[in-house]
């Protein structure tokens, strides 16, 4: 349960400064990419707006230079996490996913706390779950020096803020310091709570502010709904989208069921918390003075429903002007308090809390799925696939990758020949291509193995492959290394530079890589870099200390921070070499926390891919007759491949444009061969039965547990049979809970690499608290098309099942449904995720040795009986798992036309 707050001694729920800050953040949350900026350009635009906002609030941004953590989705802001001193703010902007549209706002309610008795509209609960807001705030409240969290939002975002708050104070699994405070602030929001016995202890901290003529907070009022229904009917449904525009509330459906709705669910929602009316009026003019200033006031609404039902309120509603009266900027922002005393907390405290907030934000604020079509993601897959396929005698991807590398190097040589500086082209090219040159050398050193030689660490000691060693096929420093991601991001940034500028600046590339790492990490890992308008030098403050790995010397860490803070960052990076500099910064950013490292990758993948797409657009506009606006990356690449010419290019640009187009053609070829390859990624915590799971898929028996030190790979051979007509490989990712630092680095490098995912949890009769595991799984399989969640080792839990028995079937169905509900509550649901109760071996006992035939026969019979009991009652074994995998492989390859 939440705090045991004593309301007689607690501080005010919201100060005037906090009111202003919440309102300003809500205003900022409406920033959208309306001018077709690149993703990094949009992020910089938002940060500039944030800086302006802080100054307008009266905060000295030269002294308090903490940066917000901002989660984005589809060129919109989703969540802003910020702080000033020991007070943190979480501003929520609603999302609009397809399944939310399918759940009507008021006709479907869902428990706020799983299996609880207090409900909220399903759409609001979905927002809370999808965004990961409850575990985020819960983790923030555990930060020692953070005193208070203010949740805020406008319209539906405000209602979602209230739902998060209510979850935290009523969830029996949560307990936080009684001295910590939570307040939720909603501007122009509907009621959110349906309850027979609402919590009364914390009600005074649920604050809802209502502009005097805003209709949205009154949507659940019968009188207001009647007026809307009459208005829509009178307008012949021309305003049918009125409320849907504001709240995603399906008013067309509401009108069809008006009588039922007005007497039913809508009236059951409580006007919970403290409601306040925001009014504005012109005072009487002073005689002889024609000046009349608007005055603003706040008045407590003791009985909100009575007010919303009142004749005066309903009569004054202007439904022709509803968007204006609900607008945050026009109806709410003018009510910011004037001449507010701005807190001046310790700068060190402010920055310390700001740093520590980023880790839970990176871990729990779920980012959207990353498309495998993003250029860095493609290159990651191509590099890993080149090593994997060459290991087993297939060189097609290897050849395409090296052709891309050669084309890239030729293009960059022409690119650098246009730069007027003292550094030679060869030296500059050597710096940039350092990662690719080393990669090519490692690829040439790979010695192919036979197909039987797959994941031998999973073989029984008594069953070694003929003529093979026991060395597993692993991703390690001899193949992909821990610099693969840095190289692919760096490469995408090279291809994002505009080659058509008449004069190049030598610092451009170095500044670009600094900009890339800065905007990728900013708000993710407390690492901020501000660049000049020309992006020719690094200048501004860099807050790095939370990212410095424990083993790095303090002097070296301070020097790195100092170089960038003094504006000498670009020169320092240039001395180290372009790629080496990027890889170094990327390594530092990735060294703090696995969730942060994955978030950094997610942001940088999107940024570099966005800038790359912009450059494709520039080239295609100049070189392709069929160019059209708003083409995506794949369409632009295909267009450049098929019809690009240099006819319209300036004479001095023709060679450069031709080389760029050749690089794009190599990328298209690389996409085609990689589309025909499927990576099945398998992950699970230590001891969950992963090695036996893999052996069972291959038709092998289990043996003594073998610990995996690095990610392993091998051909996918169901029942031990290889299919030479397709390229399908299994990647065994060791547990993320390992203490092996090198292993964790490789897990990060392989983030998003899979096409199909299989995640193992150890079965239990009911779910445990697996919050971190849920979020880790969603991150791990971010780029996968399909994921199978297996609740494994069912028959090792002492269940008493009878074969094909009604009671046993009900028992298994009950367990499965309980887990399904649990996963759905954590946003693990179809169509991406499927769930099975599995036992791949039927027993946790090791199969007896070859010289004990009687014991082996008994073991095999006992194991098969257990499997038959499970499968006949609705569980799954090896055959069902393989069938699922085969179905997904076929669907993927058929979709791609293979």
UniProtKB/TrEMBL annotation:
Domain Fungal lipase-type: 140-220
GO BP: lipid metabolic process
Comp. bias (Polar residues): 453-478
Pfam families the record matches: Lipase_3
InterPro entries reported in the protein's UniProt record: AB_hydrolase_fold, Fungal_lipase-type, P-loop_NTPase
Segments of this protein annotated with the region Disordered: 444-478
Transmembrane segments: none
Identification of the protein by name: Fungal lipase-type domain-containing protein
